[in-house]
């Protein structure tokens, strides 16, 4: 089983399926994973297998390293399309997330004013006012909603602590449209407490209620995708092109822009 642990605090640039030339900003340690989810499909592996020994990067370290990398990219004539907060877990867990967002926007404006600032988050910290307000300042506030079924969420996303999906939906509505919903669709069977269970969320039982939640949230966009790299759990399969296209078309028919990444 191979996993990806990203350098910290800056990595890339990499080519993103959804975002273009992306310079990554990793607010988690460089030697492990820190996340409020423990998804069975995470390319970084399971939390318990990658406990970090290094501290979180400081606000000052992030700003210094980001500015140095942007200066280098300007000199090389290769400006990023997007500055993406991602990496080894949940970026909004960082205690100075809001301040780092403010620093990043200032550096973006100075060195690459046409680049977008994006955050990939599982939405577990959006109840914090400072996180909500910071996400309102970024260009692409990309928040996860894999399903509205609590059993599926606990089986696949493995949230740490309490995760009330209906409360999450209400908090997603509070962005008043300044949010992009990101959803993983996949197929396959996994072993759960000795029994084989399906993790296929491409059928109507999952898609229909999810679509109703999306309509209620009224996001600016929806991004649906499927497995792209090796996963820590065996037995997971990609959703097919036809399945993703059908879901995408239903979102578009509801008046919401939607992209599918295969």
Topology:
Elements: E1 10-16, E2 20-26, H1 59-76, E3 82-86, H2 97-111, E4 116-121, H3 129-137, E5 140-144, H4 150-156, H5 165-173, E6 180-184, E7 186-192, E8 195-198, H6 204-217, E9 221-225, E10 236-238, H7 241-253, E11 258-261
Helix pairs in contact: 1-2, 2-3
What gyration radius follows from the Cα positions, in whole Å?
A: 18 Å
Mean pLDDT, to the nearest integer, reads 95
Any low-confidence stretches, pLDDT <50, length ≥5?
none
Q: Main sheet?
A: 8 strands, mixed
Number of strands: 11
Total number of helices: 7
How helix-rich are the residues, as a percent range? 25-40%
The coarse silhouette is globular
Q: State which percent range the strand residues make up.
A: 15-25%
Structural class: alpha/beta
SSE order in H/E notation? EEHEHEHEHHEEEHEEHE
Distance between the termini: 21 Å
Strand ordering within the main sheet: 1-2-3-4-5-6-9-11
